[in-house]
């Protein structure tokens, strides 16, 4: 009669290292007899009990069950956070793999620390999928502290070898979500101009050492103003979860950068900070030409000013042309 499992009643039993183990439920059976076939000889052997093997198998089964339960809890928690942030299910799967990689390295902590880990993994996964989610937005919607979340993001990036991507695709995706939030209908043009403004800000060192969300918010305000949308900076700051004063500072810096490249044109005297948004389409369309030409035009302007200064010193400030004979005679008498 084949051996039978006392737990589930299954007859599917195999011997592993001298211990009978049920293949259906994984229970280790004790003190069972088995027949070993050697040629034409049948020999009945008594299987002895090995406490170490039994404990080891029970521990392996217990760890497997705990890992599966923990994975289900993490999947449910990440699904809840994705619902809050309105992210796709693919980002949830990528964040779950990051969580498993971090937990396999001995991650421990309180419930709040596990929540920070889930938010950090979602932020890294969303940046790799070009969703354009900012750290401040995740901290504000998930109700966690931004500084603690930033430290957890550094920890996840250091252990996984990843880095948060701040590409133009991320900026365009973030501006698309801002357009939907603020009911901006011309999303294509606004997002295209904003994407170019972010690239211009990177070339002009406006993004260096600064938080990415402030620059994207400033670029969105300028591009929307170019399409004659009057958007309050407080609404953009509320969506991003950042301060409105810093966004206004980034707007001023980007305007000064554009003005520095356009004020040396023949009609550059017509442009100032207040109306730079009117000339924004021209600046963005010809930026590849304006950027290298601006130093040359500035050099020509300086040389022209120097020549004018020399002419004033030679002929005097009151004369518009060459001096007359009386003026030359007075100058010679003065020198004598």
From TrEMBL:
PANTHER family: PLANT-SPECIFIC TFIIB-RELATED PROTEIN PTF2, TRANSCRIPTION INITIATION FACTOR IIB-RELATED. Residues 327-336 have a biased composition (Basic and acidic residues). It comes from the Eukaryota. Residues 313-336 are annotated as: Disordered. Residues 73-151, 166-256 form the Transcription factor TFIIB cyclin-like domain. This is Transcription factor TFIIB cyclin-like domain-containing protein. Gene3D superfamilies: Cyclin-like. Keywords: Transcription, Transcription regulation. It comes from Durusdinium trenchii. The keyword Transcription regulation applies. The keyword Metal-binding does not apply. Pfam families: TFIIB.
């Amino acid at each position: 009669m084949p051996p039978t499992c006392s737990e589930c009643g299954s007859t599917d039993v195999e011997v592993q290292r001298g211990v009978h183990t049920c293949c259906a439920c994984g229970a280790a059976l004790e003190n069972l007899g088995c027949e070993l076939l050697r040629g034409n000889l049948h020999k009945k052997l008594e299987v002895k009990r090995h406490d170490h093997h039994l404990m080891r198998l029970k521990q392996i089964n217990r760890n497997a069950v705990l890992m599966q339960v923990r994975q289900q809890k993490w999947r449910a928690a990440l699904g809840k956070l994705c619902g809050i942030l309105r992210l796709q299910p693919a980002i949830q799967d990528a964040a779950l793999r990051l969580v498993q990689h971090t937990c396999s390295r001995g991650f421990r902590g309180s419930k709040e620390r596990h929540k920070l880990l889930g938010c950090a993994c979602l932020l890294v996964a969303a940046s790799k999928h070009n969703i354009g989610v900012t750290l401040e937005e995740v901290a504000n919607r998930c109700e966690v502290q931004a500084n603690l979340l930033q430290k957890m993001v550094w920890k996840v990036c250091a252990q996984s070898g990843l880095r948060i991507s701040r590409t133009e695709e991320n900026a365009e995706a973030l501006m698309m979500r801002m357009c939907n939030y603020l009911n901006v209908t011309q999303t294509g043009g606004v997002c295209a101009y904003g994407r170019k403004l972010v690239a211009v800000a990177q070339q002009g060192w406006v993004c260096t050492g600064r938080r990415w969300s402030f620059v994207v918010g400033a670029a969105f305000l300028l591009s929307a103003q170019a399409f004659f949308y009057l958007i309050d900076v407080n609404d953009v700051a509320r969506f991003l979860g950042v301060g409105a004063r810093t966004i206004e500072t980034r707007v001023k810096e980007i305007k000064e950068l554009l003005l520095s490249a356009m004020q040396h044109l023949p009609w550059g005297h017509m442009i100032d900070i207040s109306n730079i948004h009117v000339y924004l389409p021209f600046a963005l369309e010809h930026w590849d030409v304006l950027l290298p030409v601006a130093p040359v035009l500035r050099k020509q302007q300086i040389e022209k000013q120097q020549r004018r200064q020399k002419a004033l010193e030679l002929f005097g400030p009151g004369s518009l042309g060459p001096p007359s004979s009386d003026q030359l005679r007075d100058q010679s008498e003065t020198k004598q």
